[in-house]
Amino acid sequence: MRWPGLVRVFLDANVLFTAAHNPNGKAAFLISLGSSGLLQLATSAYAQEESKRNLERKYPDRIDAFGLPPVWWTGRQEKRHDHQTVD
After folding, report:
1. From CA 6, how far away is CA 16, in angstroms rounded?
2. What's residue 23's pLDDT?
3. Is residue 1 part of a domain?
4. For the segment 56-70, what is each residue's pLDDT rounded down to a tens digit?
5. Is the pLDDT of residue 82 over 50?
6. Is 37 left (phi over 0), alpha (psi -120 to 50) or beta?
7. For residue 34, is it within any domain?
């Protein structure tokens, strides 16, 4: 079954971390697709914070590449079925 409209992709901390530390990799490519409007990207505040912490510890020179908030971030929150919010 195809969903109408854009495909929504949730980016967890691992994807955010990998995209920031390897800007030529597949994770960064996903973000570029979202930035160009071909995908709808979503993440959580927790995933952003976790990836930022890991970048600060392992690749502090890549923090600027991470960007807070990311350029594609809308900041919209949605209720999930388990009653947690996704930022």
Report:
1. 20
2. 87
3. no
4. 999 888 887 666 555
5. no
6. left
7. yes
Residue 24 domain flag = yes
The pTM assigned to this predicted structure is 0.72
Q: How many structural domains does the chain have?
A: 1
Question: Residue 37's pLDDT band (boundaries 50, 70, 90)?
Answer: confident
What are 2-10's contacts with CB under 8 Å, separation 24+? 5/40, 6/37, 6/38, 6/39, 6/40, 7/39, 7/40, 8/39, 8/40, 8/41, 8/42, 9/34, 9/39, 9/40, 9/41, 9/42, 10/42, 10/43, 10/86
Q: Is 2 contained in some domain?
A: no
Map tokens 């890991």 to a residue.
54
Full domain range(s) for residue 11? 7-86
User: What pLDDT score was predicted for residue 72?
Assistant: 47
Phi, psi angles (nearest 5°) of residue 66: -65, -50
